[in-house]
Amino acid sequence: MAITITESSAKHWALRFVGVATLAGIAIYFASGAAPSTLGKITEACTLAIAAIALNLLLGFNGQISLGHSAFAGLAAFTAGYSVNAWHWNPWLSLLISCAVCFAFGMLVGLPALRLKGSYLALVTLAVAFVWPTVARKFLNQTVKQSTLTGMKLKPPTWTGLANNRADRALFLFWLSITLLIVAYVVVRNIRKSRIGRSLVAVRDNETAAAVMGVNLPLTKTITFGISASLAGLAGWLTAAQLTTLDENSFTILTSIKYLLALILGGAATLAGPVVGAFVYYFVDDLLKTNAPHWDFLPGPLSNGPVASFLLGAVVIAFVFIAPTGFVGLIKSQTRRIAIVVPRPLRHSTVAEASVEESESP
Amino acid sequence: MTMLEANDISVTFGGIVALDGLSFTIDDGQICGLIGPNGAGKTTMFNVISRIYEASSGQLTFRGHNLLKVPAHRIAKLGVARTFQNLALFPTMTLLENVMVGAHSTGTIGFARSTFRFGTARAERALRDEAGDLLFALDLDKLAFHPAAGLPFGTLKRLEIARALAAHPTFLLMDEPASGLTHSEVDELSDTIKRIRDEFKLAVLLVEHHMAMVMNVSDKVIAMEFGRKIAEGSPSAVQNDQRVIDSYLGTSS
């Protein structure tokens, strides 16, 4: 018999505390001993997680698909890189500006989304993703007059006590990416658990009914697109903080597909899904890329590079069959036998225990 | 007092006339039945009032507001709520959340406050309590945390009513609430409709084919055929109207 824990009870808080403490412990463990290259990888995984969270808000909760999120990330990265290098802006100011630019641009791209749905919307946003590298190349050729844009060269602030060398910079970026990941997670969690969050899901489930309930469809959809784009911008800015040089190939349609895969693997429309999915995707990909070239037993054409992407594809396909609701769905269905978190009972409830099947609260 | 006044409402869909100069009024607290054969334009009238369809001509006044100028999402705030003929629930959401979305128009917390969770706790708690009360009122509380998908039709019909009531409406539109219900559920529904009218002090416009129920609950009945009104009056008057008998009710020999 599974242990029943009521939401927001002392037990639930204890469970949450243990969970957060474990995650913090893992982060501190890596920060205190891992090589800069490992920290760099975790930073990249966090960046992917932020982008997947952004896509989750739009696709998972609001039901609007976007393949254009690579363009938003690219726009933010270029805004940050250019404003810091050419205009000598403070990088932290460029973070705010990048997100604001992405918010505005996201609302703009969200406008056609008011009339389009499903695969048609996918096509429009696909076009945005395709156009971005060309725009970026033109910008590099004509404005920057170089083949690449220099990254932000983000230095650890003095209060951190970190020096400006490779190891300390990696450590700083590691903590920074975790902080921004928490920010993105909390923003989406807050939205989901609010009046607005319910209206987003209502729009996804049944637009007509949502409108009759008083949900302003155009406003809700465009602002959601804007917030999602600005969260993708957060990921883009973080990329610009990591890379020494940026060019048009840093953010292509493949980047968007990576965001989408991470989200689907982890579990769309769950809060933890995009984070778990991003880490699983990133490290499975990394593992295969590192090890596959050494697998001499594979026949000729497979024995080198391509086998890694081939296997990654196979893993993704297999996983979608094993766990159609994503990694988080799989974990939930397994841990259900041990412990289950149930919502607080209703006021004046005469029923001892309301039956709980699926409630979306971690 | 007159609450809703429809004056000469017409709707055409590319040459097909769905409503042809329909006029009627509904008073405060009145239960008004709207009957007629399939295709008479009953659901079209519903969709005009809830602003899903545009009227081609005519006036529609609700408590002094020109309803034809109000966007669909403002209707709820004015006090008009509805249920749908073939269910338009939010299948992935729990019953509690469905009812909480029903109260969307009563809330004021927008994107900014939601994002930063700025002073939202009290409103959330009040909303949850109130939605829970509505679930109790319609005997849905045992399923509060169950997603709407996959529940029996009769249960979901009740959920539609609970969700509509969450908006604090003064005017409730019910599109065939009895369809698909068993005999005992229909009797229960008649009582429920009268009970919510008295408890929540609202007027009801009821589209229904279940004649026994319409005649039982309605204060007034409007009969329609081919987009036009053919009779209006007390249930017994409409029931005995020759045109209504000829076109819709038929003779029970």
Q: What does this protein look like?
A:
The complex is a heterodimer of chains A (362) and B (253). Chain A contains 13 helices and four strands. With 362 residues, chain A is mainly alpha-helical. In chain A, helix 2 packs across helix 11 (273-291), helix 3 (69-86) runs parallel beside helix 5 and helix 11 (273-291) packs antiparallel against helix 12 (306-322). Chain A is globular and about 70 Å long. Chain B has 253 residues and is α/β, with parallel strands linked by helices. Chain B has a six-stranded mixed beta sheet, sandwiched between helices. Chain B has a four-stranded antiparallel beta sheet with strand order 2-1-4-5, covered by helices on one side. The longest helix of chain B is centred in the last third of the chain and has 18 residues, at 183-200. Chains A and B meet through helix 6, helix 7, helix 8 and helix 9 of A and helix 2, helix 3, helix 4 and helix 5 of B.
